[in-house]
Amino acid sequence: MHFISKKLYTTSVGLLLLLAFFYAKAAGIANNVEPLVLRAEKLPFTPKEFYVADIIDDRSDRKAVAYLLPVGGAGKAQAVDLQGGAPTALRTFIQKSLPANKTLRPVIIRLKELQVKETPTAAGRVAGNISVIMSFEMEREGEMVPLLQYKGGGRYERSASRNEVTEPAMRQSIVEALRYLNTWMDREANTNPRLAKGIKVSFTDYTAPADQDTVFYDPNRPLSWNDFRADINKTSRFSATVFPSFAYEGQTEVRDGIIHLNLNMMVYVLKSSSWVKENAKDPYGLNHEQRHFDIVKLVSERFKQKIKPEDLSLADYNSNIQYLFIESFREMNQLQEQYDSETRHGLDKAAQDSWNQRLDKELKVMGVK
User: Which residues, if any, are the signal sequence (predicted)?
Assistant: First the structure.
């Protein structure tokens, strides 16, 4: 008996839910609440820099896009959605109204807000207020690049007895958001790094007359003993010490949608860090120190070769280059240690001659000598 009673109770609940469903459906038909249908139209502009790849619904309130007063009678505003829901309706509208050239930049629309609210006016009419908020992003190298945000909307007024303006007014607000995006893209496409489609890298070598403390590498201006101006380290077992290094400065300009990056290379010796003992100032010793300078120049040329545009991220090429620079800096230190070890700091003349030939040959291949 207890089992039968439970079954009857469950059936009663199901019947109540079914009746409630039919009641709600009947009430909707009676109030004539139909979804809004965005009518496709040929827009007065054609995108030349982008196409809409997708629409993402980021609204905090996704229940409905409109709260409309009943036509022909009093009552509270009723929730009315776009046919198929806002994202689907917008996709369909854009696909039919805006040509999609998929060779252009793919833009994703994030729908933040799309809402119409109607209120009665003192004159017995109905006022509508439309709010549209969209953010636009671009898909590039597998990542999303934020572009801009649009906030807009509009107002309308209609008769309380008929409604023929809500859909056209909402559609016009959406079109204005797309027009805003199109205008911005046309203006920014050639010069904005966020819209860049590629990168080109060029190099210059910084050369200048030696100033008070710095000698920049110049094959026509080798080191002289006058460049060794630091106080002599009298306790050192070495006859001379030179401190060459290298660095770069980058300048960028976006032209025709391409990032043009110029790296100005600086290979230098600091006079205030280099010293020589008086009894060591001979051509052989100076050549040994010059070869330390040549090694840095060689590494800087190899650094240039490592930088390949196809391997650089458009979003973070600076980090890519900085990583390669650190690797080259390690290579420079390793080569300097190898050079001093094999030549025994210049004491092994045969090894020194071998390094002289090696460096001259490699620098010649690099176009330096």
Answer: 1-26
